[in-house]
Amino acid sequence: MGELSSWNDSAAKRAILDFVAAVTDEGGSGYVPPSERIATFDNDGTLWCEHPMQPQLFFLVDRVKQLAAKDPSLKDRQPYKAVLERDLKTLREEGKQGLMELAFATHAGMSEEAFDKIAKAWFAASRHPKHGKPFNQCLYRPQVELLQFLRANGFKTFIVSGGGIDLIRAFAEEAYGIPREQVIGSSGRLRYELHDGKAVLMKAAELNSFDDREIKPANIGLHIGRRPILAFGNSDGDLAMMRYTRTGSGARLALLLHHDDEEREAAYDRDFHLSPLAEALDKADEYGITVVSMKHDWKVVFDDH
Amino acid sequence: MGELSSWNDSAAKRAILDFVAAVTDEGGSGYVPPSERIATFDNDGTLWCEHPMQPQLFFLVDRVKQLAAKDPSLKDRQPYKAVLERDLKTLREEGKQGLMELAFATHAGMSEEAFDKIAKAWFAASRHPKHGKPFNQCLYRPQVELLQFLRANGFKTFIVSGGGIDLIRAFAEEAYGIPREQVIGSSGRLRYELHDGKAVLMKAAELNSFDDREIKPANIGLHIGRRPILAFGNSDGDLAMMRYTRTGSGARLALLLHHDDEEREAAYDRDFHLSPLAEALDKADEYGITVVSMKHDWKVVFDDH
Questions:
Q1: Fewest Cβ atoms nearer than 10 Å: which of A26, A95, A121, A167?
Q2: Does A247 touch chain B (CB under 8 A)?
């Protein structure tokens, strides 16, 4: 596939090409040495689809079903009952505490390695209800091309996601060419334990970091220790990361994907309660953020390989 | 410099060479694909000298002097007074709380980028009292060779240190060829703030993670998300990391540097109260850890470049 061949020849594509040309031009005023060419991408809604809900939530529902098959008493216990009956009203009433209980029941209490196997088996077996293919194939082709293009120009590409770090790590290397150590996400605490002389990291039912909004740049500081020169997001949860990137000195590019393509994917922004886009869209001009229109800037949406 | 030319042709060197040959032999039973060739190194006492005390503590003392020059009232206030007067008895009485106050007063309350400048200026100006050269030149040459040798064989090399992450990042890339994003260390919380429209990460006076003992493998899980196949340490603070590495399946190598070289550096282990080595040395055989003797296994100690 050619250089960003899934992108229309629009202002957004030109902004990307001009930026990459500037930071790689060794004599130029915008030159950035390869070690500083850090690009950070949100995942849900930026690299893969998040509509009607994030794949992580489909995973959570499927995991609750698995757990209920082993322990039928869950069918009568909240918040599990509400998940199994798709009872959104009760789920909302259970609130943040109910959601955390669900998250830990489905993601914790096992070793990192055991979770990785569960996640990979789910990717192999599951299908997106609308697109009819495995979730790890619901990737945006223009973005996969962009990641490759950036790496071909000496960039190191990172994911900085509100999604769970271990679910992303189970597919990101194969899907995006982004290795596990370049994935930052929400995480629970890990506990070192010895089981019959073998050291394992157990996923504890305790939050370590919810990697959203102002926590995204803070985690970039912790994991990467460099200010990115390019950031790509699609919601207000990415705004702090985009501003942290954009307000550094020298050449910087912040990109915001707008889901305005009802026909090929979905059209949503400020009313998408799972991850709204409002301030970042309203203030994109003021903050120097380049808006990418799915409808107008992308020739194709999905990566049908 | 040749392949591990600063290492004597001893059992330790042969263990390293055999291990690297096995994991890179594509047809062999010990083969490990490059993406999984993760090597983690402790820093203090493993890559650079930590005797008579860690460079971080020299940095802390110099920072207290800088602060006292600006605010003379510190000269009469504990725990600053004790630092300035080298009053170890009072320092010990001030305990962990006093040490945390000192750590935050000297490392926090500024942006990441401001701290990086302070750290780099300190490396340029300071001298190790015994070795008479800048701290970032008190590196062990055999280890710098080993890092290069591993990378030449497709390994990704990481630092996993109890030392402060930002002080290490200020010199590791130039000294060891280890980029900032491959440094894991102790850290304070970072807060995203907007200063006159510019986003900055402020180093808060709040502990995020003390990267020692069982927390080392937990942070490897968080930052890297893969079990290392090689780990190198020098104290009981590294034992959990070494066991996490060693007890994975397939070819694994855990190495422990023993400071037994009074003449060329220093001889210390279980009585070095800043970072004792006892259990890891006593149980090295049982745990499958290869002990490296500074005195017998290294032709030269320091990297006199």
A1: A26
A2: yes
Partners of A255 in the beta sheet? A232, A290
Q: What tokens does B256 get?
A: 């422990």
- Residue whose entry in the numeric block shows the structure tokens 């860690």: B54
Q: Which residues contact B207 (CB under 8 A, 6 or more apart)?
A: B100, B188, B189
Q: In this complex, do A180 and B226 lie within 8 Å of one another by their Cβ atoms?
A: yes
Closest CA to B204 of B280, B282, B100, B285: B100
Helix (H, G, I), strand (E, B) or coil at B171: coil
For B276, the token pair is 């004792």
Mean per-residue pLDDT of chain B:
96
Q: Is beta strand A183-195 parallel, antiparallel or unpaired with respect to A198-209?
A: antiparallel
**Contacts for B219 with CB less than 8 Å, ≥ 6 apart:** B160, B184, B209, B211
Cα B28–chain centre separation: 33
3-state secondary structure of A130: coil
Task: Report the sign of the C-alpha dihedral through residues B226, B229, B232, B233, in that order.
Answer: positive
Tell me which DSSP letter residue A26 carries.
Answer: T
CB-CB neighbours of B124 under 10 Å: 9
Q: Which residues contact B43 (CB under 8 A, 6 or more apart)?
A: B159, B161, B163, B168, B172, B185
Q: Which two tokens stand for residue A147?
A: 């990641």
Q: How many residues does chain A have?
A: 305
Kindly indicate the confidence band of residue B2, based on its pLDDT and cuts at 50, 70 and 90.
low
d(CA B166, CA A213): 23
Chain A 94-133, residues with CB within 8 Å of chain B CB atoms: 112-113
pLDDT digits (tens, 9 = 90+) for A13-69: 999 999 999 999 999 999 999 999 999 999 999 999 999 999 999 999 999 999 999
DSSP category for residue A289: P
Q: Calculate the alpha carbon distances from B225 to A165, A259, B184, B221 in Å.
A: 9, 31, 13, 4
All residues of chain B having their beta carbon less than 8 Å from the beta carbon of residue A174 are none
Residue B33 CB neighbour total at 10 angstroms: 9
Task: Say how far apart CA A68 and CA A122 lie, in whole Å.
Answer: 16
Q: What is the dihedral of CA B245, B247, B248, B253, to 10 degrees?
A: 50
Chain A residues close to B191, C-beta within 8 Å: 214, 218
CA distance B186 to B164: 5
A151 touches chain B (CB under 8 A): no
What tokens appear for A209 in the block? 């970091």
